Inverse folding.
């Protein structure tokens, strides 16, 4: 490669607009499918009703004020935040796992940036027409048609951006109520800031910046691409087949028949440029694997369509591994899972998923925390008895008001004093602190170094919990 | 790949070369990067106008933003934005948010508070804070007290009574414990006898004859200990005189003294010099009645009443 001989360049580079051509095919259909599903979930979920006692009947709601998340029948409290940690670990490991097998599948099909950019491009095409029409429109002076078409496009983009921000906000309250309050000016200040910020960023990221987000902003793409192995499947151009020994050539009259072409040493690539025109990242996959490629597979669809039309075999651009492409006779591409790294990720994924499922399945309807009061650790009473005190915090997560009974086991009768609280009533979602004191005579002290608190919910005695604690004293003083 | 393709991909370099062929690409950075820089410059200027920023002579630019708060004298003030005013404003808001709970505590009888788990939980958490700020300096963080200085609030011995109303009274008006010195009234032998008697009440194995003599002295007009401590030596809560028959000591460190002569010396010291240091200040000028009531409940729970 020649270096240091180009004419000086400007310090800053203007974005070269990418005008993509639409395409039909397997990967395009898969992308539409993912998009419909993802949008249905994101935009629909806040409106899904759910029967729930005492609180807003919304299937998924993040109640920041009440410090709890409602996710269908699961209620998540701050104490359960490690579920989120587990979930993030699982998500990260799943990303590594999937990347090792099939490369940047996340980027091309599931990433929000891809999904929103895709819909924005679709709108652009709907309003302004196919690629040649859009390029023509770009070059056109600012006349009525251009203003109208660009205006409508941007208005629709803004509308979608606004509804994206709005939907995100609706997760944090009871949606029908919040929507009315938002438009009547009675929602919280934070709601307006959130909606405005998300509208602006969605519009900018999916409408204006597009592939620049992936190329310059996104850290995901950077570290995803370093997890590639030679066995990892990636969107690849079969250069040997495409270029042949003589290079690419248009299907001129004498080079139309596949057999003749091969005989003369020309590759299968007819240099139609279709794969470049459909690429939302604006790259040429025939230059090889590159960091801007988001593995969306649209160039595969484009190339297959062209191969079909000229009657050559499909798969000139395909999902394949570097190792396979390097073979003298490339085999049929397949997923290579028999690798230590992949199996390792899979095991980690399994263990952590198991831990999360187990933790959620065995959750109790209430949270308890027993703390020994350590200032002072023990108290000598006027008759010489020793008293220890404990602070018991109960959090009711059941969704209904509950009553609990606190008892002890492994102590002589009458040692427990709960003051006036025979049973402890806790309202749904609330926490209470109960002070328990245990009094032992000097003769008893040495015999009960530890004992158990038993906390029983009256309406569900089978959920009782037993917590072992210590009894402290300094018997040498007696 | 064709030759033409390669040429279009050549890149300008910075012109430096290391190790013969190691060179640095000089790629332009994208335009939006530049715009982001301009936007942050604008944001800095906006910040300068909004908030206090530059020192000017003896003053400073105060910015356009204002903040309104109610100061501790109840006067509403508006000033340029500053963190002190913001703190005052947020403190007022926090106090207002707590007010309903304090009002509920004030309106609820003592026994009802102890029966209501959720109100009681507020008392425990708010009381802990009030106690730390006002009481812990003498009575220690957990209310454990300090021998010879401040009573232990976690035991069941109460000099002035441990009912809610007694505790409320103690916090509101303060207490002043006093015991006259006996060094000039009694001989050293008499003081020893009294100390032995007092120790015998707590089952310390002292000389029984000396204790018996001390018993007589205790109830005589010479020493007249029974005036304050009562004929049964159990103390009188009206006066705040100590119960001498229980295992709890405040002024003489009897449990901490190793040998019987040392225990004796500790008690003798109190009898000889008397006490004029059992002073608890009045809190009614510093704490509101609601705060005092809440503290009374909190302190009552530390020692379980009696």
């Amino acid at each position: 490669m020649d270096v240091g001989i180009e004419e000086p360049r400007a310090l800053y580079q203007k974005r070269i607009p990418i005008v993509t051509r639409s395409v039909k095919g397997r990967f395009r259909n898969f992308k539409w499918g993912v998009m419909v599903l993802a949008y249905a979930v994101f935009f629909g979920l806040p409106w899904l009703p759910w029967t729930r006692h005492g609180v807003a009947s919304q299937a998924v709601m993040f109640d920041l004020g009440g410090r709890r998340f409602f996710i269908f029948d699961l209620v998540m409290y701050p104490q359960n935040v490690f579920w989120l940690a587990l979930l993030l670990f699982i998500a990260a490991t799943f990303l590594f796992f999937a990347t090792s097998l099939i490369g940047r599948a996340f980027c091309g099909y599931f990433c929000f940036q891809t999904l929103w950019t895709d819909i924005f491009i679709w709108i652009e095409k709907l309003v302004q027409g196919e690629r040649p029409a859009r390029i023509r429109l770009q070059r056109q002076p600012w006349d009525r048609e251009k203003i109208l078409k660009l205006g409508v496009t941007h208005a629709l983009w803004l509308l979608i951006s606004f509804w994206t921000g709005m939907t995100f906000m609706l997760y944090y309250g009871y949606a029908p109520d919040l929507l009315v309050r938002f438009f009547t000016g009675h929602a919280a200040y934070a709601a307006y800031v959130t909606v405005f910020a998300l509208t602006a960023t969605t519009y900018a990221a999916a409408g204006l910046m597009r592939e620049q987000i992936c190329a310059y902003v996104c850290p995901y793409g950077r570290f995803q691409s370093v997890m590639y192995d030679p066995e990892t499947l990636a969107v690849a151009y079969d250069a040997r087949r495409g270029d042949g020994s003589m290079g690419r050539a248009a299907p001129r009259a004498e080079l139309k028949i596949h057999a003749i072409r091969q005989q003369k040493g020309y590759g299968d690539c007819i240099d139609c440029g279709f794969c470049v025109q459909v690429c939302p990242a604006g790259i040429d996959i025939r230059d090889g694997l590159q960091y801007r490629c988001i593995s969306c597979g649209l160039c595969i669809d484009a190339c297959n369509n062209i191969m079909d039309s000229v009657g050559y075999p499909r798969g000139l651009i395909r999902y394949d591994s570097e190792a396979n492409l390097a073979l003298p006779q490339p085999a049929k591409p397949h997923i290579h899972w028999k690798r230590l790294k992949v199996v390792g990720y899979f095991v980690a994924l399994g263990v952590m998923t198991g831990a999360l499922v187990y933790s959620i399945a065995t959750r109790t309807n209430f949270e308890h925390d027993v703390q020994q009061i350590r200032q002072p650790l023990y108290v000598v009473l006027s008759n010489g008895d020793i008293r220890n005190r404990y602070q018991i915090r109960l959090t009711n997560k059941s969704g209904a008001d509950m009553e609990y009974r606190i008892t002890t086991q492994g102590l002589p009768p009458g040692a427990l004093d709960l003051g006036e609280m025979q049973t402890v009533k806790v309202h749904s979602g609330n926490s209470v602190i109960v002070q328990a004191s245990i009094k032992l005579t000097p003769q008893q002290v040495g015999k009960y170094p530890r004992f158990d608190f038993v906390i029983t919910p009256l309406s569900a005695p089978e959920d009782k919990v037993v917590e072992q604690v210590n009894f402290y004293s300094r018997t040498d003083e007696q | 790949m064709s030759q033409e393709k390669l040429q279009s991909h050549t890149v300008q370099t910075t012109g430096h070369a290391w190790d013969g062929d190691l060179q640095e690409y000089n790629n332009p950075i994208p335009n939006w990067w530049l715009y982001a820089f301009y936007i942050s410059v604008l944001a800095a200027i906006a910040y300068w106008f909004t908030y206090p920023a530059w020192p000017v002579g003896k003053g400073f630019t105060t910015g356009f933003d204002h903040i309104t708060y109610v100061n501790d004298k109840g006067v509403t003030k508006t000033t340029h934005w500053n963190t002190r005013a913001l703190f005052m404003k947020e403190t007022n808001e926090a106090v207002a948010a707590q007010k309903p709970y304090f009002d509920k505590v004030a309106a609820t009888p003592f026994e009802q508070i102890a029966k209501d788990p959720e109100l009681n939980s507020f008392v425990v958490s708010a009381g802990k804070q009030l106690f730390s700020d006002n009481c812990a300096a003498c009575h220690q963080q957990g209310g454990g007290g300090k021998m010879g200085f401040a009573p232990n609030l976690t035991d069941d011995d109460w000099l002035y009574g441990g009912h809610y109303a007694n505790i409320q009274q103690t916090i509101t008006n303060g207490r002043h414990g006093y015991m006259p010195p006996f060094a000039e009234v009694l001989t050293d032998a008499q003081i020893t006898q009294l100390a032995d008697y007092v120790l015998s009440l707590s089952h310390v194995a002292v000389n029984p004859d000396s204790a018996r003599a001390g018993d007589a002295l205790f109830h005589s007009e010479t020493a007249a200990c029974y005036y304050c401590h009562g004929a049964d030596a159990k103390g009188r809560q009206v006066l705040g005189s100590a119960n001498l028959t229980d295992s709890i000591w405040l002024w003489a460190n009897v449990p901490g003294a190793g040998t019987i002569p040392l225990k004796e010396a500790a008690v003798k010291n109190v009898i000889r010099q008397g006490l004029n240091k059992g002073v608890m200040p009045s809190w009614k000028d510093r704490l509101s009645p609601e705060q005092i009531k809440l503290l009374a409940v909190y302190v009552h729970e530390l020692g379980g009443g009696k």
Notes: Residues 356 and 362 of chain A are 10 Å apart (CA to CA). Chain A has three domains: 26-227, 234-325, 366-477. Residues 366-477 of chain A form a domain with the Immunoglobulin-like fold (CATH 2.60.40.10). Residues 1-6 of chain A have pLDDT under 50 and may be disordered.
